[in-house]
Write a structure and sequence with these properties.
single chain, UDP-N-acetylmuramoyl-L-alanine:D-glutamate ligase, 22% strand, alpha/beta, nine-stranded mixed beta sheet, 14 strands
């Protein structure tokens, strides 16, 4: 088999999205704009009060590799599902997006993971996640041959919430580097970074060639309120930091210095779910095609702008055609 552009390793989750107002979010006792881990019963309680939800395959790294595939990159994904209805939906959906997926499913409990996403009129999303089968991902699920084939292995930080899944990340990073490949990590969520700060730092300092996150996540990782200081901390360890800043765009820090790139202009925000995942997809698509870092960030802004313009975390049709001029233009 030939070379692979991007391999994502992360939680295999089915997203269940519904529009809601602030009062509904408050009534459920969920922190607006945050991600709350819930058990199976709590997840069912939240699902029971939703109106007419939209179901779509999700998970941070899965969203990123699906986005990269939609842009024309070859991609694969490793994540754990159960052999159940939601698991079948996830497998079919990610295959339809052009992403290779061959992780062996569980033949018994826990169920395939699900995430309810409540989208308020301001475009903010409030997540509650039942991890289910995701918690069973371990080093044995990491296919060494797939890692060796991938030009970039993209690691989802949420996996640090389970010890064996965190070990799977470290296994994949080691395999990638032994094969002379690049490793990227997404910081995933501020609370996740806070829970596992040292593990993230060890990965960033010892294995990561590229770090994705937003301003707050990076500041939390580096233990500072100063974004410039946090960027310096990451690049001093030899990694490139690609940091999103919402409407202010993004900043990329590398050994060459800092480069600020604006957000995509003229975008009507509908749902911010998956914006960071899409940014990483665009960035990685540019990277594997030899684009400079500023051009990679522009591709990231384009992909993020497309995703936030509609409900759901996966890009719609036509993104590849819009991205091509950015690759051709110098």
């Amino acid at each position: 088999m030939g070379e692979l552009d991007v391999l994502g390793i992360g939680n295999a989750i089915v997203d269940i999205l519904a529009e809601a107002d602030d009062a509904a979010v408050d009534a459920l006792g969920l922190p607006k704009g945050g991600m709350t881990l819930v058990d199976a019963e709590r997840s069912k309680e939240i699902l029971a009060v939703l109106g007419r939800p939209v179901r779509a395959s999700g998970g941070s790294a899965a969203n990123t590799v699906a986005g990269a595939a939609s842009l024309g990159s070859s991609a694969a994904f490793i994540g754990k599902i159960r052999d159940d209805a939601l698991g079948a939906d996830f497998a079919a959906d990610i295959a339809a997006s052009g992403v290779g997926f061959a992780t062996q499913p569980l033949d018994g409990p826990p169920d395939t993971a699900r995430c309810t996403v409540l989208v308020t009129p301001d475009g903010e999303r409030t997540l509650s996640t039942y991890l289910g089968a995701c918690t069973r991902l371990g080093p044995g699920d990491i296919d060494p041959e797939v890692v060796r084939r991938a030009r970039v292995t993209y690691l989802e930080g949420y996996l640090f919430d389970q010890p064996q899944s965190g070990e799977a990340l470290r296994t994949a990073a080691s395999l990638a580097h032994r094969a002379g490949r690049q490793v990227a990590v997404t910081l995933s969520d501020t609370l996740c970074v806070d829970r596992h700060r040292q593990e993230f730092l060890d990965l960033v300092d010892g294995a990561a060639d590229l770090v994705f996150g937003n301003e707050e996540e990076l500041r939390t990782l580096c233990g500072t309120d100063d974004l410039s200081g946090a960027l310096e901390r990451v690049r001093a360890g030899g990694a490139v930091a690609a940091v999103t800043r919402g409407a202010k765009g993004s900043v990329v820090a590398s050994e060459r210095g800092f480069e600020e790139v604006p957000a995509e202009a003229g975008v009507a925000v509908v749902d911010t779910t998956g914006a960071g995942d899409a940014y990483a997809a665009g960035f990685l698509h540019g990277l594997v095609r030899g684009a400079g870092l500023a051009r990679c960030a522009r591709l990231g802004s384009l992909a993020a702008g497309e995703v936030i313009s509609h409900l759901g975390a996966r890009p719609g049709p036509g993104l590849a055609a819009r991205a091509e001029p950015l690759l051709d233009d110098g």
